[in-house]
Amino acid sequence: MPANSSESHASDARPTARNAAQMAVRTAQPEPGSVKPDAILTIDNVSRSFGGLKAVDVKRLEVQRGVITAFIGPNGAGKTTFFNLLTRFDDPDTGAWNFNGKPMQDQRSYAIAKAGMVRTFQLTKSLGKMSVMDNMMLGAKNQSGESLSRALLKGSWRKQERRVEAQATDLLGRFNLAHMRDEYAATLSGGQRKLLEMARALMSEPELILLDEPMAGVNPALVQSLLGHVQALRDDGVSVLFIEHDMDVIMGISDWIVVLAEGSVIAEGTPEQVSQNDVVVDAYLGTSFAGATGDGARSSEGDEGNQQ
After folding, report:
1. How many Cβ atoms from other residues are within 10 Å of residue 22's Cβ?
2. Three-state secondary structure along 279-294?
3. Cα gap 298→136, rounded to integer Å
4. Are 263 and 55 in contact (CB under 8 A)?
5. How far apart are alpha carbons 50 and 93 in whole angstroms?
């Protein structure tokens, strides 16, 4: 069989797997802590307090594999703190969580990333005095040249480095940053730094990526590009968990939504279910948003009825 034929079959299988995951998550109950058909991440009793303020208090949460899950909630709801705990950039007071069935609460941040769960940050963490290409190549894992003993033996890691550079070149092309590969990361715009951070995260070939407000501070001209890349991650089989405040973005690309308020999960569901949830409307969305989405849904139903 020709190589391009096998690639075609692999590409044809991606939409099927994606659609299966999207259909599967819709069978979950729209309630806090609901069981997911194929959870990639499960969280139990994770909490974090600062003085007398309980910033995170998540009793139970499951994240479905192969879909885009959005985290929403008011400012101060504990969303970023929750991400920090899951990736061990902060230590929880209590709780445990499993990624692909393996406990992560006692692992260090680098070990969690190596296991396949990586994150980006609300304030980008690009290394400004290094080139875009060097930033990318740092993201690849298990590089032989990073070992002090093997670094002196150039022949032992040079071939691998060429493969890493080829992977980085491909990703920079996908994220429209190929023309900036030799520029310092500090010269990039805010939106380009978001793209770089997302592309660098993919260098480690993650199974789950946590995106902390990927659209924040981005020029509107780049928002659609970023949205396309987030959807492409899912289409490539990467599970996505992201924080965002733009409800149009959330309703447009999310398969499942988790709502936090005062550190706790108050609701879960599909975009349609969450937009009509009275608890969410009162705590976050407001009646005007719910009314608008409700009218849209009723209008759509009416149009379908007229067509029939």
Report:
1. 17
2. HHHHHHHCHHHHHHHH
3. 47
4. yes
5. 10
| Domain boundaries defined on the chain | 18-126+205-307, 127-187
Class of domain 18-126+205-307: alpha beta
Token pair of 200, please? 């660098």
* pLDDT by position in tens, the chain (length 308): 444 444 444 445 556 666 888 888 888 899 999 999 999 999 999 999 999 899 999 999 999 999 999 999 988 899 999 999 999 999 999 999 999 999 999 999 999 999 999 999 888 888 889 999 999 998 887 766 566 666 666 666 678 788 989 999 999 998 889 999 999 999 998 888 888 998 999 998 999 999 998 887 777 777 888 888 889 889 888 999 999 888 888 998 999 999 999 999 999 999 999 988 888 888 776 655 555 555 544 333 444 444 43
- Distance between CA 2 and CA 12 in Å, rounded? 16
Task: Report yes or no: 121 and 212 within 8 Å, Cβ to Cβ.
Answer: yes
